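Throughout our pipeline, every protein is held as a single compact record rather than as scattered files. The record that follows is passed on verbatim for readers who wish to inspect the format.
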Amino acid sequence: MDTPALQRRLGTLDATVIGLGSMIGAGVFAAFAPAAAAAGSALLVGLALAAVVAWCNATSSAQLAARYPRSGGTYVYGRERLGPWWGFVAGWGFVIGKTASCAAMALTAAAYLVPPAWQRPVAVLAVVVVTGVNLAGVTRTARLTRVLVALVLLALGAILVTAVVRGPLHPVGPVVGRTGVYGVLQAAGLLFFAFAGYARVATLGEEVRDPERTIPRAITLALSGAVVVYAAVGVVLLLVLGPSRLAASSAPLAEVLPSGAAWIAAVGGALASLGALLGLVAGVGRTVLAMAREADLPAPLAAVDARRSVPQRAEITVAVVVAALVCTVDLRGAIGFSSFGVLLYYFVANLSAVGQPRPERRYPRAFPVVGMVGCAVLAATLPWQSVAVGVAVVVVGVGYRWWRSR
C-alpha cells in the first residue's frame, strides 16, 4: 500500500534529545530497586553488562537505520534482511511491550503527582495531552522533550548532590540478594529497560534529516549520556542506602532526600515519566504506521496527516488503547514484560545486522553477534512470569498474522 512519506524535520540535537528523554524516564526512578533485589551490590556489574548489550544493539540499529531510514525501526530491518515473519515478530513485540510501557509511564507520572483516588483520571489526561503534542508535529515533540529532559537532569542533579552532602556515606557491604551469575544477569535484564529508549531514534528514521549521518550520531550521543546518568545514580544509591535498603525501597531517590525535599524526587519522577511517555507514543505510532503499510496491521492506520506530517490514526489508536489499559490494569510492574519485548526486538535487529555486506557495515561484525547473544541470555534470565507473558504475546501475534494471511 502506497502512503505519503513523513517529512524530514529533525536534526542531530532533536533526535538525540528524543532518545535521551526516552531513556532517562521512570526507569531511573524505578529500576534500581528490583535490580538490587536480584544482584545486591553487584547491580553495578549488571548495569555495565546492560550497557554493553545496549551499545552493541545501538551500533546495529545505527548502521541499519542509515541503510533503511524509514519509520518502523527493526520491523523494517527484519523485513528487508530476514523476511516478513521476522519483521512482524520484532514489530509486534515492540508495539505490545511498549504500549504496556506507555500505560505504566502514565500511571507512574500520576502516582508522583496526585493521591491514589485521582491517579487513573490524571494518567488518562497525561495520555491525551502527550498525544495532542505529538499530533501537532514531530518538531513540537522535540521541543517539549528538550524542556522535560533539562528539568529531569536538574532534578536528578539536585537529588544526587543533596544525598552525597547529607550523607552518611558508607562502603558497599557484601553482595546480597540472588547472588551469583544468575542474579547479575537478571539485574542486567531489568536495567536494560532503562536503555531501550534509543529505539525511538530509529523508529523516527523517516523524519530525520541526513539520516546516514544523523541517526548513528544521535544514537551514540543519547546512549552515552544515559549510561553516565545511570552510573551516577546507581553509585550514589548504593553508597547512601546500601544494597539491602535499596532493594526494599519503593522510591529510592526520594528516600535519599530529607523529608522536606522529597518533592524534588516527586517532580523529577513525574517529568521523567512524561518525557518517556512522549517518546514512547511517538515511537509506537511510527511502528504501527510501518506495520499498517505492509498490511500486518489494518491498512487505515497507515494514514498520514498531510499538513502536520504525522501518522494521526496510528497515534490516536495507540492513545485509545493506552487510556483503556490505564483505566483497567495496573501496569507499573511491567518492567520485566517490556524488557522481554525490547530484547526480542533487538535480537532481530542484531540478526539483521550480522548479514549486512561490508560496504554497509560501520562497526565490526562481532558487535551484532555479541548483542544477539546478550539479548537472548538477558531475556532468558528475566523473571519467569515476564518470559511467560512475553512468549504468550508473541504466540498470539503470530497466530493473528497467520489468520490474516489465510
Notes: The domain at 12-397 is CATH 1.20.1740.10 (Amino acid/polyamine transporter I). The chain has 17 helices and no strands. The radius of gyration is 20 Å.
